[in-house]
Amino acid sequence: MRVEFIAYAGDCRVSGATTLADGERLTDLLNRDLAIVVDGARLTSHADGHTVEVGQITLDRDDLFAIEALGPRGEPARRLHTVRHRLEVRLGPYTVLGQMHTRPGGRPLVAISQRSPMVPLTSATIAFNTGDGIEAVDVETLIINRSLAEWVRTDVGDDLPALVGVPVAAPHPAI
User: Fold this and answer.
1) Share of the chain above pLDDT 90, in %
2) Is residue 74 included in any domain, yes or no?
């Protein structure tokens, strides 16, 4: 199945289309494959907004900080009851706010550290600097590359030491 693809690399936004297998979600593809083929790719510079059409491009997953989750949500029968926790993450030039879903009683930083590298956050905002100032994009679901996280902050104060290898900021009063 062809789906729209929008990703955030180091200095640009990449848009185009990619292909999912039947019943597959974009998160499944990103966690399975180290490279993603994007057709009709357009690279839009954060610095000055110019766009370059590159046709087909193969992207290394480790070069992508975040990807908008477009396409199917997956089978309803596989969904579990979860509790949402507000998370703030710094990923290179991006700051992301979103909701991390855990099982009831779960600790969000423990949960994120035990997941595959590409982790979905719902009701998300990704913000970054452009030549015109700060741009903030609201998306229903944003898949973040947790292996590129510089720091993370959660709404659960007693969860601070749980994400090994990533500095954890104290809870922000506004969260």
Assistant:
1) 62
2) no
